[in-house]
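step 3/5: co-fold with DOR
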Amino acid sequence: MRILVTGGHVIDPSQEFAGRADILIEDGQVKTFARDKKLKNNLTGPQDRVIDAAGMWVVPGLIDMHTHLREPGYENKETIRTGSMAALSGGFTTVCAMPNTNPVNDNPGVTEFILKKARAEGNARVLPIGAVTKGQMGEELAPLYMMREAGCVAFSDDGRPVANPLIMRRALEYAKGLDALIISHAEDPLLSDGGVMNEGLLSATMGLKGSPAVAEEVMIYRDIALSELTGGRVHIAHVSTLGGVRVIRQAKERGVAVTAETCPHYFSLTQEAVSGFNTHARVNPPLRTQRDVEAIKEGLRDGTIDIIATDHAPHGRAEKISRQFDDAPPGISGLEAAVPLSMALVGQGVLSEMELVRKLTQSPAKALRIEGGTLREGSPAELAVIDPQRRFVLKAEGFISLGKNTPFDGMEMKGAVVATVFGGRIMEWQRA
Ligand code: DOR
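step 4/5: write C-alpha coordinates
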Protein backbone atom coordinates (compact mmCIF):
# COMPACT_ATOMS: atom_id res chain seq x y z
CA MET A 1 0.00 0.00 0.00
CA ARG A 2 1.24 3.44 -0.91
CA ILE A 3 0.07 6.86 0.22
CA LEU A 4 0.98 10.10 -1.51
CA VAL A 5 0.63 13.24 0.59
CA THR A 6 0.73 16.02 -1.94
CA GLY A 7 0.62 19.79 -2.11
CA GLY A 8 0.89 20.45 1.62
CA HIS A 9 2.92 22.92 3.65
CA VAL A 10 5.24 20.50 5.42
CA ILE A 11 6.81 21.51 8.72
CA ASP A 12 9.46 19.10 9.94
CA PRO A 13 11.81 20.60 12.55
CA SER A 14 13.97 17.45 12.59
CA GLN A 15 15.01 18.40 9.05
CA GLU A 16 14.77 22.15 9.67
CA PHE A 17 12.28 22.18 6.84
CA ALA A 18 9.17 24.27 6.38
CA GLY A 19 7.81 24.58 2.87
CA ARG A 20 6.18 22.76 0.01
CA ALA A 21 6.99 19.07 -0.07
CA ASP A 22 5.38 15.88 -1.26
CA ILE A 23 5.67 12.72 0.78
CA LEU A 24 5.42 9.20 -0.55
CA ILE A 25 4.69 6.48 1.97
CA GLU A 26 5.31 2.83 1.18
CA ASP A 27 4.76 -0.11 3.51
CA GLY A 28 4.33 2.16 6.50
CA GLN A 29 7.55 4.08 5.96
CA VAL A 30 8.42 7.44 4.49
CA LYS A 31 9.86 6.38 1.17
CA THR A 32 10.40 9.78 -0.45
CA PHE A 33 10.49 13.25 1.07
CA ALA A 34 10.45 15.48 -1.99
CA ARG A 35 11.38 19.03 -1.04
CA ASP A 36 9.93 21.88 -3.03
CA LYS A 37 8.56 19.61 -5.70
CA LYS A 38 5.56 17.66 -6.71
CA LEU A 39 5.83 13.90 -7.04
CA LYS A 40 4.14 12.33 -10.00
CA ASN A 41 1.06 10.46 -8.99
CA ASN A 42 1.75 7.06 -10.45
CA LEU A 43 -0.06 5.12 -7.72
CA THR A 44 -2.07 2.40 -9.33
CA GLY A 45 -2.60 -0.27 -6.66
CA PRO A 46 -6.15 -0.84 -5.40
CA GLN A 47 -5.08 0.07 -1.84
CA ASP A 48 -3.14 3.19 -2.83
CA ARG A 49 -4.39 6.53 -1.59
CA VAL A 50 -3.69 10.18 -2.26
CA ILE A 51 -4.06 12.86 0.42
CA ASP A 52 -4.57 16.25 -1.18
CA ALA A 53 -3.01 18.52 1.45
CA ALA A 54 -3.32 21.82 -0.44
CA GLY A 55 -3.67 24.62 2.10
CA MET A 56 -2.83 22.25 4.95
CA TRP A 57 0.06 21.83 7.33
CA VAL A 58 1.65 18.39 7.22
CA VAL A 59 3.63 17.63 10.39
CA PRO A 60 5.30 14.60 11.95
CA GLY A 61 2.93 12.67 14.23
CA LEU A 62 2.83 14.62 17.49
CA ILE A 63 4.33 13.19 20.67
CA ASP A 64 2.60 13.77 23.99
CA MET A 65 4.99 12.98 26.81
CA HIS A 66 2.34 13.48 29.50
CA THR A 67 -0.89 11.50 29.14
CA HIS A 68 -3.07 9.76 31.71
CA LEU A 69 -4.63 6.72 30.06
CA ARG A 70 -6.18 5.41 33.32
CA GLU A 71 -5.97 1.71 32.44
CA PRO A 72 -5.57 -0.48 34.43
CA GLY A 73 -8.00 0.45 37.14
CA TYR A 74 -9.97 3.52 36.13
CA GLU A 75 -11.56 2.35 32.91
CA ASN A 76 -14.62 4.50 33.65
CA LYS A 77 -12.40 7.56 33.05
CA GLU A 78 -10.43 6.28 30.03
CA THR A 79 -9.04 3.10 28.57
CA ILE A 80 -5.94 2.44 26.53
CA ARG A 81 -8.26 2.04 23.57
CA THR A 82 -10.23 5.28 23.95
CA GLY A 83 -7.21 7.31 25.06
CA SER A 84 -5.04 6.19 22.18
CA MET A 85 -7.86 6.87 19.70
CA ALA A 86 -8.35 10.31 21.23
CA ALA A 87 -4.62 10.83 20.77
CA LEU A 88 -4.84 10.07 17.06
CA SER A 89 -7.81 12.38 16.72
CA GLY A 90 -5.72 15.12 18.33
CA GLY A 91 -2.82 14.51 15.92
CA PHE A 92 -0.70 12.58 18.46
CA THR A 93 0.78 9.32 17.24
CA THR A 94 2.84 8.72 20.40
CA VAL A 95 1.64 9.14 23.97
CA CYS A 96 3.54 8.50 27.17
CA ALA A 97 1.29 6.94 29.79
CA MET A 98 1.66 8.21 33.33
CA PRO A 99 1.77 5.54 36.04
CA ASN A 100 -1.00 6.68 38.41
CA THR A 101 -3.23 3.77 37.47
CA ASN A 102 -4.58 1.06 39.77
CA PRO A 103 -2.43 -0.89 40.26
CA VAL A 104 0.23 1.75 39.83
CA ASN A 105 2.72 1.05 37.04
CA ASP A 106 5.49 0.36 39.53
CA ASN A 107 6.54 -3.09 38.31
CA PRO A 108 7.30 -4.79 34.99
CA GLY A 109 4.00 -6.71 35.06
CA VAL A 110 1.95 -3.55 34.72
CA THR A 111 4.37 -2.11 32.15
CA GLU A 112 4.01 -5.26 30.04
CA PHE A 113 0.22 -5.20 30.39
CA ILE A 114 0.05 -1.63 29.07
CA LEU A 115 2.37 -2.39 26.16
CA LYS A 116 0.55 -5.55 25.22
CA LYS A 117 -2.87 -3.93 25.36
CA ALA A 118 -1.70 -0.90 23.39
CA ARG A 119 -0.15 -3.08 20.71
CA ALA A 120 -3.32 -5.13 20.40
CA GLU A 121 -5.38 -1.96 19.91
CA GLY A 122 -3.01 -0.73 17.21
CA ASN A 123 -3.86 2.91 17.83
CA ALA A 124 -1.23 5.47 18.78
CA ARG A 125 2.13 4.24 20.06
CA VAL A 126 1.86 4.03 23.85
CA LEU A 127 5.07 4.34 25.84
CA PRO A 128 4.72 3.65 29.55
CA ILE A 129 6.22 5.88 32.20
CA GLY A 130 7.02 3.93 35.35
CA ALA A 131 6.54 5.13 38.90
CA VAL A 132 9.59 6.38 40.79
CA THR A 133 8.39 4.87 44.05
CA LYS A 134 6.34 1.80 44.91
CA GLY A 135 2.67 2.64 44.77
CA GLN A 136 3.74 6.25 44.21
CA MET A 137 3.88 6.41 47.98
CA GLY A 138 7.18 8.25 48.02
CA GLU A 139 8.82 5.82 50.43
CA GLU A 140 10.63 3.10 48.55
CA LEU A 141 12.08 3.14 45.04
CA ALA A 142 10.26 1.05 42.44
CA PRO A 143 12.38 -1.52 40.52
CA LEU A 144 13.56 1.00 37.95
CA TYR A 145 15.99 -1.31 36.19
CA MET A 146 13.41 -4.04 35.58
CA MET A 147 10.82 -1.53 34.46
CA ARG A 148 13.27 0.07 32.07
CA GLU A 149 13.99 -3.38 30.63
CA ALA A 150 10.24 -3.96 30.31
CA GLY A 151 9.84 -0.81 28.24
CA CYS A 152 9.37 2.22 30.48
CA VAL A 153 10.76 5.29 28.75
CA ALA A 154 10.92 7.49 31.86
CA PHE A 155 9.98 7.54 35.54
CA SER A 156 7.66 9.82 37.44
CA ASP A 157 5.32 9.85 40.43
CA ASP A 158 3.20 12.36 38.50
CA GLY A 159 0.00 13.27 40.23
CA ARG A 160 2.15 13.56 43.33
CA PRO A 161 5.59 14.91 44.02
CA VAL A 162 8.47 12.81 45.29
CA ALA A 163 8.46 14.67 48.58
CA ASN A 164 11.54 13.06 50.11
CA PRO A 165 14.68 14.65 48.63
CA LEU A 166 16.86 11.64 49.44
CA ILE A 167 14.56 9.37 47.45
CA MET A 168 14.66 11.83 44.55
CA ARG A 169 18.44 11.86 44.76
CA ARG A 170 18.61 8.06 44.60
CA ALA A 171 16.11 7.96 41.74
CA LEU A 172 18.26 10.38 39.75
CA GLU A 173 21.37 8.31 40.49
CA TYR A 174 19.69 5.13 39.23
CA ALA A 175 18.17 6.92 36.29
CA LYS A 176 21.58 8.12 35.25
CA GLY A 177 22.83 4.55 35.07
CA LEU A 178 19.77 3.55 33.06
CA ASP A 179 19.93 6.62 30.82
CA ALA A 180 16.34 7.30 31.80
CA LEU A 181 14.58 10.58 32.38
CA ILE A 182 13.02 11.47 35.73
CA ILE A 183 9.90 13.58 35.29
CA SER A 184 9.25 15.84 38.23
CA HIS A 185 5.77 16.74 39.38
CA ALA A 186 7.16 19.83 41.03
CA GLU A 187 5.06 20.61 44.05
CA ASP A 188 6.22 20.96 47.63
CA PRO A 189 3.33 19.26 49.42
CA LEU A 190 3.98 21.05 52.70
CA LEU A 191 3.67 24.38 50.94
CA SER A 192 0.75 23.47 48.68
CA ASP A 193 -0.92 21.99 51.77
CA GLY A 194 -3.99 20.67 50.01
CA GLY A 195 -4.70 23.89 48.11
CA VAL A 196 -7.24 23.48 45.33
CA MET A 197 -6.63 26.62 43.28
CA ASN A 198 -3.97 29.29 42.93
CA GLU A 199 -3.32 31.12 46.18
CA GLY A 200 -4.20 34.79 46.03
CA LEU A 201 -6.93 37.32 46.41
CA LEU A 202 -9.30 35.25 44.27
CA SER A 203 -8.90 32.10 46.37
CA ALA A 204 -9.47 34.17 49.51
CA THR A 205 -12.58 35.77 48.00
CA MET A 206 -13.95 32.43 46.90
CA GLY A 207 -13.19 30.88 50.28
CA LEU A 208 -11.10 28.15 48.70
CA LYS A 209 -7.76 26.95 49.96
CA GLY A 210 -4.97 28.26 47.76
CA SER A 211 -1.80 26.56 46.57
CA PRO A 212 0.99 29.12 46.27
CA ALA A 213 3.18 29.46 43.20
CA VAL A 214 6.22 29.09 45.42
CA ALA A 215 5.32 25.43 46.07
CA GLU A 216 6.20 24.79 42.44
CA GLU A 217 9.22 27.07 42.34
CA VAL A 218 11.07 25.56 45.33
CA MET A 219 10.53 22.01 44.10
CA ILE A 220 11.86 22.87 40.66
CA TYR A 221 14.88 24.40 42.34
CA ARG A 222 15.39 21.27 44.48
CA ASP A 223 15.14 18.87 41.57
CA ILE A 224 17.50 20.90 39.41
CA ALA A 225 20.02 20.99 42.27
CA LEU A 226 19.74 17.22 42.68
CA SER A 227 20.13 16.73 38.95
CA GLU A 228 23.31 18.80 39.03
CA LEU A 229 24.61 16.79 41.97
CA THR A 230 23.88 13.37 40.47
CA GLY A 231 24.13 13.94 36.73
CA GLY A 232 20.70 12.31 36.36
CA ARG A 233 18.47 13.98 33.79
CA VAL A 234 15.37 15.71 35.13
CA HIS A 235 12.36 16.97 33.21
CA ILE A 236 9.97 19.41 34.83
CA ALA A 237 6.33 18.57 34.12
CA HIS A 238 3.48 21.07 33.69
CA VAL A 239 5.30 24.32 34.50
CA SER A 240 2.69 26.90 35.51
CA THR A 241 4.49 29.74 37.27
CA LEU A 242 6.67 32.74 36.55
CA GLY A 243 9.05 31.66 39.34
CA GLY A 244 9.33 28.19 37.87
CA VAL A 245 10.22 29.55 34.45
CA ARG A 246 12.86 31.79 36.03
CA VAL A 247 14.53 28.93 37.93
CA ILE A 248 14.65 26.73 34.81
CA ARG A 249 16.01 29.59 32.71
CA GLN A 250 18.82 30.23 35.19
CA ALA A 251 19.69 26.53 35.30
CA LYS A 252 19.85 26.32 31.51
CA GLU A 253 22.07 29.39 31.44
CA ARG A 254 24.63 27.56 33.55
CA GLY A 255 24.42 24.51 31.32
CA VAL A 256 22.20 22.14 33.30
CA ALA A 257 20.59 19.56 31.00
CA VAL A 258 17.11 20.15 32.43
CA THR A 259 14.10 20.04 30.11
CA ALA A 260 10.65 21.42 30.79
CA GLU A 261 7.10 21.25 29.53
CA THR A 262 3.99 23.31 29.92
CA CYS A 263 0.43 22.51 28.88
CA PRO A 264 -2.06 24.44 26.73
CA HIS A 265 -4.21 25.43 29.72
CA TYR A 266 -1.29 27.23 31.36
CA PHE A 267 -0.85 29.60 28.43
CA SER A 268 -4.53 29.84 27.51
CA LEU A 269 -6.33 30.45 30.81
CA THR A 270 -5.91 32.28 34.10
CA GLN A 271 -7.24 31.45 37.56
CA GLU A 272 -10.35 33.47 36.73
CA ALA A 273 -11.57 30.39 34.85
CA VAL A 274 -12.46 28.80 38.20
CA SER A 275 -14.85 31.64 39.01
CA GLY A 276 -18.31 30.26 39.57
CA PHE A 277 -16.60 27.20 41.06
CA ASN A 278 -16.11 25.69 37.63
CA THR A 279 -14.74 22.23 38.41
CA HIS A 280 -13.62 21.80 34.79
CA ALA A 281 -10.99 24.45 35.49
CA ARG A 282 -9.71 22.60 38.55
CA VAL A 283 -6.31 21.19 37.66
CA ASN A 284 -3.05 20.54 39.42
CA PRO A 285 -0.91 22.64 39.32
CA PRO A 286 -3.70 25.20 39.32
CA LEU A 287 -4.37 27.87 36.71
CA ARG A 288 -2.42 30.97 37.68
CA THR A 289 -2.40 34.72 37.03
CA GLN A 290 -1.98 36.76 33.87
CA ARG A 291 1.64 37.48 34.89
CA ASP A 292 2.32 33.75 35.05
CA VAL A 293 0.67 33.21 31.67
CA GLU A 294 2.90 35.90 30.15
CA ALA A 295 5.98 34.30 31.76
CA ILE A 296 5.03 30.88 30.40
CA LYS A 297 4.74 32.37 26.92
CA GLU A 298 8.08 34.09 27.30
CA GLY A 299 9.56 30.76 28.47
CA LEU A 300 8.18 29.06 25.38
CA ARG A 301 9.49 31.83 23.17
CA ASP A 302 13.04 31.91 24.53
CA GLY A 303 13.38 28.12 24.72
CA THR A 304 13.28 27.79 28.52
CA ILE A 305 10.24 25.58 28.02
CA ASP A 306 11.15 22.96 25.44
CA ILE A 307 7.93 21.02 25.15
CA ILE A 308 4.17 21.34 25.00
CA ALA A 309 2.48 18.33 26.61
CA THR A 310 -1.22 17.85 27.28
CA ASP A 311 -1.37 16.41 30.82
CA HIS A 312 -4.48 14.74 29.42
CA ALA A 313 -6.33 13.91 32.64
CA PRO A 314 -9.75 12.45 31.85
CA HIS A 315 -12.29 12.16 34.65
CA GLY A 316 -15.87 10.89 34.83
CA ARG A 317 -18.72 13.32 34.36
CA ALA A 318 -20.26 12.70 37.76
CA GLU A 319 -17.00 13.22 39.63
CA LYS A 320 -16.53 16.61 38.06
CA ILE A 321 -20.09 17.90 37.78
CA SER A 322 -21.83 16.74 40.90
CA ARG A 323 -19.11 17.44 43.41
CA GLN A 324 -18.08 20.55 45.29
CA PHE A 325 -15.09 22.31 43.79
CA ASP A 326 -12.68 21.08 46.48
CA ASP A 327 -13.92 17.53 46.13
CA ALA A 328 -13.80 17.27 42.35
CA PRO A 329 -10.69 15.53 40.99
CA PRO A 330 -8.19 17.86 39.30
CA GLY A 331 -7.51 17.45 35.60
CA ILE A 332 -8.38 18.49 32.06
CA SER A 333 -9.04 16.21 29.11
CA GLY A 334 -6.39 17.63 26.81
CA LEU A 335 -5.59 15.47 23.80
CA GLU A 336 -8.30 16.74 21.50
CA ALA A 337 -7.87 20.47 22.10
CA ALA A 338 -4.09 20.75 22.26
CA VAL A 339 -3.46 21.55 18.60
CA PRO A 340 -5.79 24.53 18.17
CA LEU A 341 -4.87 25.94 21.59
CA SER A 342 -1.17 25.64 20.78
CA MET A 343 -1.58 27.07 17.30
CA ALA A 344 -2.89 30.26 18.88
CA LEU A 345 0.72 30.88 19.97
CA VAL A 346 1.69 31.29 16.33
CA GLY A 347 -1.12 33.79 15.75
CA GLN A 348 0.02 35.73 18.84
CA GLY A 349 3.61 35.89 17.59
CA VAL A 350 4.93 33.82 20.53
CA LEU A 351 6.23 30.96 18.38
CA SER A 352 7.00 30.43 14.73
CA GLU A 353 5.27 27.46 13.15
CA MET A 354 8.62 25.63 13.16
CA GLU A 355 9.17 26.19 16.88
CA LEU A 356 5.59 25.23 17.68
CA VAL A 357 5.86 21.94 15.83
CA ARG A 358 9.29 21.32 17.35
CA LYS A 359 7.80 21.54 20.85
CA LEU A 360 5.25 18.89 19.91
CA THR A 361 7.56 16.52 18.04
CA GLN A 362 11.33 16.71 17.99
CA SER A 363 11.81 18.14 21.49
CA PRO A 364 9.86 15.46 23.37
CA ALA A 365 11.58 12.78 21.26
CA LYS A 366 14.94 14.26 22.20
CA ALA A 367 14.15 14.59 25.92
CA LEU A 368 12.98 10.98 26.05
CA ARG A 369 15.66 9.74 23.66
CA ILE A 370 13.07 7.93 21.59
CA GLU A 371 12.57 7.56 17.85
CA GLY A 372 9.83 9.48 16.13
CA GLY A 373 8.87 13.07 15.56
CA THR A 374 10.37 13.11 12.08
CA LEU A 375 9.36 12.65 8.46
CA ARG A 376 12.85 11.75 7.33
CA GLU A 377 13.06 9.11 4.63
CA GLY A 378 13.11 5.66 6.19
CA SER A 379 11.21 6.66 9.33
CA PRO A 380 7.78 5.26 10.25
CA ALA A 381 5.04 7.05 8.34
CA GLU A 382 3.34 8.89 11.17
CA LEU A 383 1.95 12.31 10.43
CA ALA A 384 -0.86 14.74 11.04
CA VAL A 385 -2.62 16.95 8.52
CA ILE A 386 -3.81 20.20 10.02
CA ASP A 387 -6.07 22.83 8.49
CA PRO A 388 -4.62 26.04 9.95
CA GLN A 389 -7.57 28.20 8.89
CA ARG A 390 -10.39 25.97 10.00
CA ARG A 391 -12.58 27.49 12.70
CA PHE A 392 -14.82 25.31 14.81
CA VAL A 393 -16.55 25.31 18.16
CA LEU A 394 -15.00 22.82 20.55
CA LYS A 395 -17.60 20.36 21.76
CA ALA A 396 -16.52 18.15 24.63
CA GLU A 397 -19.38 15.77 23.88
CA GLY A 398 -17.72 15.09 20.55
CA PHE A 399 -14.43 13.98 22.13
CA ILE A 400 -13.39 10.41 21.49
CA SER A 401 -11.85 10.46 24.95
CA LEU A 402 -14.19 9.28 27.69
CA GLY A 403 -13.08 12.38 29.58
CA LYS A 404 -15.35 15.24 28.53
CA ASN A 405 -13.89 17.44 31.25
CA THR A 406 -12.58 20.59 29.64
CA PRO A 407 -12.93 24.26 30.47
CA PHE A 408 -12.67 24.97 26.73
CA ASP A 409 -16.06 23.43 25.92
CA GLY A 410 -18.05 25.70 23.62
CA MET A 411 -15.10 27.94 22.77
CA GLU A 412 -14.25 28.88 19.23
CA MET A 413 -11.00 27.36 18.01
CA LYS A 414 -8.87 27.94 14.94
CA GLY A 415 -6.75 25.14 13.52
CA ALA A 416 -8.03 21.59 13.21
CA VAL A 417 -6.41 18.20 12.80
CA VAL A 418 -8.19 16.82 9.75
CA ALA A 419 -6.29 13.57 9.24
CA THR A 420 -3.74 11.37 10.98
CA VAL A 421 -1.62 8.70 9.38
CA PHE A 422 -0.46 5.92 11.68
CA GLY A 423 0.32 2.24 11.22
CA GLY A 424 -0.46 2.36 7.50
CA ARG A 425 -3.95 3.75 8.14
CA ILE A 426 -5.37 7.13 7.22
CA MET A 427 -7.88 8.44 9.72
CA GLU A 428 -9.94 11.46 8.79
CA TRP A 429 -11.61 13.60 11.45
CA GLN A 430 -14.75 15.67 11.19
CA ARG A 431 -14.95 18.81 13.31
CA ALA A 432 -18.33 20.44 13.70
O1 DOR B 1 -4.65 17.90 37.31
C1 DOR B 1 -4.00 16.87 37.39
N1 DOR B 1 -4.57 15.67 37.14
N2 DOR B 1 -2.73 16.93 37.76
C2 DOR B 1 -2.00 15.82 38.02
O2 DOR B 1 -0.85 15.96 38.34
C3 DOR B 1 -2.64 14.49 37.94
C4 DOR B 1 -3.79 14.50 37.03
C5 DOR B 1 -4.63 13.26 37.13
O3 DOR B 1 -4.09 12.16 37.16
O4 DOR B 1 -5.85 13.39 37.13
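step 5/5: annotate
The chain has two domains: 2-58+378-428, 60-368.
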